[in-house]
Amino acid sequence: MTKLTHRRKFVTDSLTGAAVLVATNTLAVRSHAASPSDKINASIVGVGGMGSGHVKRLLARDDVHLKTIVDVDQSHAERAQQTVYNARGHRPETEEDFRRMLEDKSIDAVVIATPHHWHAPIAIRAMRAGKDVYVEKPASHVFREGRLMMEAAKKYNRIFQHGTQMRSADVTKEAGKVLASGLLGEIKMSKAWNCQKHKHRQTPADTPAPAGVNYDLWLGPASERTFNSSRFHRHWSWFREYSNGDIGNDGAHDLDMARFGLGVETHPNRITAHGSRIHLEGEREYPDNMMVAYHYDEGKVMLYEDRGWTPYGIYGFDSGNAFYGTEGFMVFSRRGYFQTYIGKGAGISVGGAGEAVALGDKKGPGMRGGNGHPEHMNNFLDCVKSREQPIANAEVAHLSCALSHLGEATYRTSGVTHFNPDTEKFIDNPEADKLLTKEYREPWGMPDPV
Question: What is the pLDDT of residues 405-441, one digit of tens each?
């Protein structure tokens, strides 16, 4: 079987087949009102930001009973509780400590939408307690957590869905068909980018935590410290103890799609990375620009670029991808878009409305569509019932999240690293190896092995 034929089969089997399963299961679920015995008892941990959207997506399903809302901020929990009451006429229980929810044997599924440093500790404990989990991106805060979540999902026979929603989008399904068709030739290189304009305030003085907030529980596995609003709601993304910066926040979506487009199912073997601070002011532990290249054994390359200070993107998109083949290329964005350009002389420019437009007559298939959010949640919930593997399971999550971690570790150490995909260790680089895991404040340590 040639590489190109193998890639066509891989994309067709893994994406199109899964998409058909999603569509079939979703239609089946929605074709009738759920009986009480068909109900999925669900809980959600973290209902600010993305969590508040997930509450609404859970409520869109007649077969889901949102039983418990967990948040360390009482105001967030009460707001979500009111949302449920307005939609369903009942008030779910609220908890500030997820461990109490895990003791409830009637809970089937848990959605986790906390800051990054809490994802794996909650997910592994939930799977050990017999719950299926939907974990927002990035599933892992450090590399090793991804492998541990894979082990936990297998050991406890749990459904695990990673919150990379474009995996379930109609645009991704159609783009996958084009890639599998061979129209663009063999995809040898993919690029991911994340270009936004951030602003950071100067750090205010420490204060007591707001009323109704259990800040010690918010910190959880992170080190103990006094409350500061710059390290809390809407600002925690810029600190390594809680987040993964641009490359692991929105960049996690774009790297996941870059891996999808490139068709690689292993870790890279060589990584080069550069980053610096050249524009943004204010407190931020991450660079405001970053460039990473990932090299694979099979002769493929993945590129990542982020800029945190530009009001414009690349090819008209702040967040996107390009898949470069031997016969043409595709521009893809999680904003719900793809367009292909084929043959010698193919190229694009950016039009007045910020749209990517073809140069000459080399434009091929393209599409506009959705971002996959409802479909992705439906895929998870359908798999809770069917016990089929979801489209972004723990292995898919680990391979994609690893790109953020490997890029960050390389940037913080030698700038160029070599990695063994089999042992999941850097080669002759103990400094980088240390960044594959971390210390956890008690009692939040992780079992290793699971």
Answer: 999 999 999 999 999 999 999 999 999 999 999 999 9
Q: How far is CA 154 from CA 128, 132, 163, 207, 394, in A?
A: 11, 12, 19, 44, 9
Write the pLDDT tens digit of every residue in 253-299: 999 999 999 999 999 999 999 999 999 988 889 999 999 999 999 89
Say if pTM beats, i.e. exceeds, 0.85: yes
Q: In this structure, are residues 131 and 109 in contact, taking their beta carbons and an 8 Å threshold?
A: yes
Q: Are strands 300-307 and 289-296 parallel, antiparallel or unpaired?
A: antiparallel
- The tokens describing 295, both together, are 């090299």
Query: Following DSSP, what letter does each residue of 177-236 receive, concatenated?
Result: HHHHHTTT--EEEEEEEEE-B---PPP----PPPTTB-HHHHHTTSPP----GGGSTTTG
Rounded distance between C-alpha atoms, residue 398 and residue 308, angstroms: 25
Chain centroid offset of residue 440 CA: 22
How many beta carbons lie within 10 A of that of residue 161, not counting itself? 30
Measured between alpha carbons, how far is 408 from 240 in angstroms, rounded to an integer?
Answer: 11
Pairing relation of β-strands 319-325 and 187-195?
Answer: antiparallel
Gap between the Cα atoms of 35 and 424, Å rounded? 46
Name the DSSP class of 138: S
Cβ-contact 247, 138 below 8 angstroms = no
Domains within the chain, CATH numbers bracketed: 3-167+374-393 (3.40.50.720), 174-200+236-370 (3.30.360.10)
Distance CA 308, CA 195 (A): 6
Rounded CA-CA distance 193/334 in Å is 11
Looking at residue 281, the DSSP 8-state letter turns out to be -
CA atoms of 101 and 95, how far apart (whole Å) = 7
Structure tokens at 186: 């063999």
pLDDT at 19 over 50: no
The DSSP string of 350-374 is E-TTS-EEESTT-EEEEEE---SHH
CA dist 325 and 340 (Å) reads: 10
SS3 (DSSP) at 2: coil
Quick one: which H or E segment has residue 302? strand 300-307
